[in-house]
Amino acid sequence: MAKVLLLSIPSHGHMNPTLGLAGALVKHGEEVTFFSSEEFRKPVEATGATFICYKDDLNIFKFSQGQAATASGKKKPAGKPGFINALLQPERFVDHLMEQIKGMQFDYIVHSAAYPYASVIAQALKIPAVSSFAVFATMKDFEKMRKGKTWSLANLVPFRWKLRFLYLLFYRNKFGKVRRYLQDKYKVQVSSDLLSHFFNKSELNIIYTSRYFIRDNSHYDDSFVFVGAPVYEKKYQVDFPFEKLEGKKVLYISLGTVFGNYAAGVYDHFFKAFAEMDITVVMTAYGVDLSAMKIPANFILRDYVPQSAILERSAAAITHAGMNSIGDLLYANVPFVSIPMGADQFFLAERAAELGATIVLDVHTLTPEGLRAATEKVMTDKSFIVSSRKISDSFREAGGYEKAVEEIFSWKKTKGIRR
């Protein structure tokens, strides 16, 4: 068996695909050491991998408070969330990890495409790398998003100019210092293009979709392996009153674990839209304070739910169109309404709509009446099921995690990794 170092951004959107991959690698005999945060200890250990906790909170969406050492050795606040700020803190993502794995031996590394400086770690360890793409909208896709109205004010200027403006004005000199620090300390090459570190390509790249779903395949060369939606038996232990769903028409609502709290007012629209309908609404509201709102009797609210099991019982769903959620919905062939709020959600929602599988609503102009009308339409118009099934079939035909492992093992031979 080969020894694998697995690094993932410890947020659900990035962890879920890599957990499935870790489990598949362990199943086929690989010895996987999986770094993540304490929050994910149990699901990581359930895959059969060895869990090691990062020294710091590396969730780029919510850095922990406190003090952290800079490259120069000075102390500073732990840092603001966000990809660019993460790239300016190499001590969190590189130095501390290199200290933790000192003396360990690995044959190759598997990392989230979004893990800052994963290529630096691979070069420093002199081992080949596999990238796990939890986000597969390219920079060009982001630039083309016409509906990019997010809480982060991305629409103040066109997206590409906003990124370039921020990069040139605020981060160019700071990133230059970090880049020189890493190159001098680890004797590695670090790309001078800061934005390229949002999409860390490796020698082999596992991407969790199908070529049918991707709008433009020209962005993906032969190093990319399309394996379909990251669907597997998740090991999260979540209690849920399934008996309350017996004999009921179920609507499932989830806005994910990152963006839902930035649009708390949307939940009131849900309550008003569906309180009088003869359905049971299962809704996740991760970290959202709904104490001031009157929750209708036909709603079941939870921070987490066993999503796959709920989808088996759902007549329709409403989603933020994050990759994991939209993958599960399409794979399960559940008709859905999309309310994208940030990141690649606009790309995913628009692409699903182009293929006839969803209705996309604008979070800024949302009304209870429009929400209910869209939901009733996807529930009753059979064309959404037909279109969704085409995508679902393409996901299944892509081969899933077994295909991913097959490709990794073939790649291992080309790298001389025999065990």
UniProtKB/TrEMBL annotation:
Signal peptide (from-to): none
Transferase in keyword set: yes
InterPro entries in the record: EryCIII-like_C, Glycosyltransferase_28, UDP_glucos_trans, UDPGT_MGT-like
Domain Erythromycin biosynthesis protein CIII-like C-terminal: 272-393
Entry annotated with the keyword RNA-binding: no
A Pfam cross-reference name: EryCIII-like_C
Top-rank lineage group of the source organism: Bacteria
Keywords (A to Z) from UniProt: Transferase
GO molecular function, one term: UDP-glycosyltransferase activity
Gene Ontology biological process terms in this record: antibiotic biosynthetic process
Classification via PANTHER family: STEROL 3-BETA-GLUCOSYLTRANSFERASE, STEROL 3-BETA-GLUCOSYLTRANSFERASE UGT80A2
Family: Belongs to the UDP-glycosyltransferase family.
Protein name, as recorded: Glycosyltransferase, MGT family
